[in-house]
Amino acid sequence: MELSERKQIILAAVVEQFIETGEPVGSKGLQAKLGISVSSATIRNEMSELAEMGYLEQPHTSAGRVPSQKGYRYYVDHLMNRREPDDYQRRQMEADISAGGADPQRLIEKAGEVLAQLTNCAAMSTMPKGEGIFIRRVEVVPVGGKTCMTLLLTSAGIIRSRVCRLDFELTASMLENFYNVVSSALIGRPVSEVGAVMLQTLAASLGSEALPLLPLIAAVAELARDADETDVMLEGQSNLLNHREYDGKVYELLEFLNKPQPLSHLISSSKNDLDVLIGKESLFRQLEDSSIILARYNIGLREGGAIGLIGPTRIDYARIIPSVEYLTGLLGKLLKKALEE
Asked: Which end of the chain is more exposed for a tag (fewer CB within 10 A), N or C?
């Protein structure tokens, strides 16, 4: 059922006043803020009808109204007046993120820090992954005796490393043979394609040295698998302690955020450029009192990763959503520049 223009004005006013104050909104207090000439009784009747329709809730019998999940959803989809970041805020965001230098992971971490500080929420981000991410380099660094460090670098700037222990001392000729085979079989290939068949081909190409070099082959496979996983980086979790909406539930929420699998699933299931999940829309019980804003960044024409935030449903959507979108585009631009250097 479509809301009348007056109901839309009243619903938007209730949502915005509740976001600002955190207190239930009454008809008399709302009357002074509305740009329409109606009585307090009329506003009260309209709010009562909005409550019957599920857009508002009344926490206590004598209290005013607060937005429901349905009310927030309608507001975000139809009523919200976006407030874009101004020039100063944009320059500040770029300066703060650029402090990460040319290291892609540091740039993404900095973007999470900026978002957490900007919103007073918990920020989450992921490194780029997908079909467009390929293996750029593999290095084996002897560190003494029969031990070496294996490193893998992807086109997205992801670096993975692992200590590898061998049953022999690595000779220069064996290392050269390994590099030659890796160069032809793996370099330039998507990390997602590094599977059993490719590793068998790699081992066969090493000939008689395949068996002694097997630990190095296994290490490269594990590094490629790690690089292809959605690792979620969190910033600003302590910000959630500042929100009274989480009283009595904040520690359960923080414990939930420390589990990588649910957040990884949440991000992987988000396919749009921007997703706003409110309350139970996330399908996780621990997030029923939270809103999640997730945006995807691209690196040039290639798919990148995601960045977003978790906060109470009473967040300032009109200010935060445009800021997340701007930050996402800025991060993609800075990552593209870093990877081209």
From this structure: N
